[in-house]
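Q: How would the structure tokens look for this protein?
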Amino acid sequence: MIDIIHGDALKQDIKNVDLIITSPPYGIGKEYEKKVGLAEYHAFLETHIKHMCKSLNENGVLAIQTGFYISDGSPIPIDYLVFGIMSKMLWFHRNRIVWTFNHGAHCRNRLSGRHEVVSIYSKSDKHQFNLDEIRIPQKYPNKKHYKGKKKGQLSGNPLGKNPADVWDIVNVKNNHPEKTAHPCQFPEELCSRLVRAYSSENDIVMDPFMGSGTVGAVCKKFNRKFIGIEKDGKYFEIAKDRISKT
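A: Here is the predicted structure in token form.
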């Protein structure tokens, strides 16, 4: 099931979603948003997050990818604002994934930003976390216990090790094979790890800020049901075309 909606996410009444993966606007004046003050942006963020959480089922997971709100040249981590909102709602903060990349805008009065954050929240202790789906190769795959009852046995998990919470993944810029006309799309590799870790086949995954359709394209590849919402007609058509061709 792929269901994409051209409209405002706040006007949709969607229930029983297993996983939300999304990246809301940063309120800093990119082409798809208007620049707003910090208080107004915080209110926007809180309104949308509360609406998203109503769509998730009791064991659902919210994965929200954020960068920085810039105020008078000062970068404010948006995940700090998200943490405050989710804490008031009594949701559990499960992981803070730092996504690093090598390319981006060059700053003059501070270090150039080369990371963003994916924050993972759940309402329940019974949320999914499929570690085996995202394990990475062991650094020393043939290392063995040298003493004790397990002497001679492999000391590491043969399926691989638990990846760290810092992910080095190339971002989508000009000439990247995934690049569309959307100015701020995140890479499929980042999204695929989240989809595999926090959902299973035939689960419902939603993105209320669908943008270029990255989450939908990944869900189609990994046999997840997908609901995407995008209010901008230009980006809706880009996402629709991209997902249909995946």
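The helical segments are 38-55, 78-88, 188-198, 214-221, 233-245.

The chain has one domain: 2-135+164-245.

Upvote if useful.
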